[in-house]
Every structure is written in structure tokens, then in C-alpha cells.
Amino acid sequence: VPPTAELAGLTEEIFGQWIKTKPRDALILATKVAGAASGWFVPPIRQGFTAIDRHHVEAAIEGSLRRLGVDYIDLYQVHWPDTVVPIDESMEALDRLVEAGKVRYLGTSNDSAYGLTKANTVADYEGWSRFQSIQNNFSLLNRRFLDELANVCLQEQVSLLPYSPIGGGILSGKYNAGEMPVNSRFAEYQQASEQRQRAMADRFLNDGTLASTASYLEIADAAGLAPVTLATAWSMQHDFVASTIIGARTAEQLVDSLAALDVTLDDEVLQKCDEVHAQILYPMG
User: Fold this and answer.
1) Do residues 200 and 175 make contact, with C-beta atoms less than 8 angstroms apart?
2) What is the pLDDT of residues 192-222, one digit of tens each?
3) Cα 188 from Cα 182, distance rounded (Å)
4) N or C: where does the chain have the smaller number of CB atoms within 10 Å of the terminal CB?
5) Helix axes 113-126, 149-156, angle to 10 degrees
6) Is 212 within 8 Å of 167 (Cβ atoms)?
């Protein structure tokens, strides 16, 4: 969902109200500080100034703590790395939050093998807190993480928190029915005024992703699983994955995602999934 100035921070406010009804130490609370989005997107917060430096990082954490109504965050993640601010300045700014007790652990997202390795090398050299996790796109339709980052995670003891495990809803099969689902994400994106959203629709929804999904639907049916359950379970079943980030527009959509918690895919199913990927390599590019 494209963020807007009106909606920025609203999730933290809503979640903050819910947190008040739960024991804080029973929750693992994660949130993010917005980075520069590599120049292709200007986050609608802090007047668009989202450098990962001391000033902006401290402003961001104070805002999150206030909206959530808590005094610390378990996992604080950089949303898009900053390629302009020197990495040592960014890591020192983040380390200050850990030293102040406002953050327990650090993570990054949408990062590269070089970016993750460089950041943690600097942190280790300086004795600062390092990135413990990385949140990147990873699914049956997007296996780019396996090219380099998976090995970095295994060697550096960094955990992946994959987002979009069902490929933005593509792997549910609803786009394979022949007609564009009404009120669906990519129906909206294809008609969006922003080129960024239209490009995202083309990346997720194309001949390759639909053909791959058709095969995954058959695999799921043969295994007695809902397509969403198969896709979510696959994303979880890697030794470098700590947890998988799921999303839904309705409460009913959560059922098949949560069912993956009790599923372990057998070798035959995994092999069939690999065969689909071998036939249609990197359908999302």
C-alpha cells in the first residue's frame, strides 16, 4: 500500500493501543526508520528528509516510541539503506539507540549482499551493534535472495525476515481466474497515476508469474494444501529464515497463511517447486 503523509505512523498508533492490553515482555515488537529508498521514492515523513544519520534516526525513534506507547523496541530496522550518508555514521547513530536502551536489536531491509556485509564489518570493527536481521522480498516467484544474500546470512549469522511470501497475492491464484479481481492491489496499481506503482504491477503480475503460479497451484492441490499455505510454508522452510512476514486485507485471508505454522513441506514437494523455478527463472526479474 503506497504510504501517505496522512497514514504514516498510523499503524504504530493502532498497535500501541492493542499493546496496552498485553504484557510487554511477551511481545517481540519491530518497527522501522525510513531510509532514502535509493532515490526512487520519497517517504512522506519528516518532510522527505530521511537520511540515516544521528539527527533523523533519533527523531524517528522518538516518534515511534511515542506512538506505540512503549519505552523500547525489540527490533529496529532500516527501511531502505542510505547510500549517501557514510555507513559508519549510520551504524554509530543506530548503535546509540541500543546503548540508550531504546532498541534491543538492529536490522536492515531491501539491502544487498555488499551493503549488509559492509555495515556489519564496520560495526564489528568499531564495537557497535550490528544488523541481526534483513527484511527482503523472498518467495516462490522471487528467489533472488538465494543468489548471494542467503550465503551472507549463513556466514554472518544474520536472519532473513522475508516479506511478500505470496508474491503480493499472486500466489493465492486469484489472478489466474481469467479476470482481474475487483478491488485487488494490482487492479488498483495498474490504474495508478504514479509510474512507480504501475511498474510494480508489471513486475509482480506478468506472463511469467502467472504461468509459474499455475504450476504452484497444481502442486498445492496435489499436496492437499491451500496455495497460500504452500507459498508461506516454502518461504519459512530455509535455515537462514527466522520468521515470515504475512499480510492480508481481510481477517479471513489470514487463515491460510497461519496454517503454514503447522506445515513442513516434504522433499517431493520442494523438488516440484524447484522444477517450476528451473522452467521459468526469476519471473519477477
Assistant:
1) no
2) 878 878 888 899 999 999 999 999 999 999 9
3) 9
4) N
5) 20
6) no
Q: Closest Cα partner for 167 from 207, 206, 139? A: 139
Q: Give all strands (DSSP E) within 69-130, no chain letters.
A: 73-79, 103-109
Given strand 159-160, what is the order of strands in its sheet?
Answer: 30-34, 73-79, 103-109, 131-135, 159-160
Q: CA 257, 200, 215, 179 torsion: positive or negative?
A: positive
Classify residue 209 as exposed, middle or buried by CB count within 10 Å of its CB (0-12, 13-18, 19+): buried
pLDDT tens digits, 97-138: 999 999 999 999 999 999 999 999 999 999 999 999 999 999
**DSSP for residue 184:** -
| Domains delineated in the chain | 5-135 (3.20.20.100), 168-238+258-279 (no CATH)
pTM: 0.92
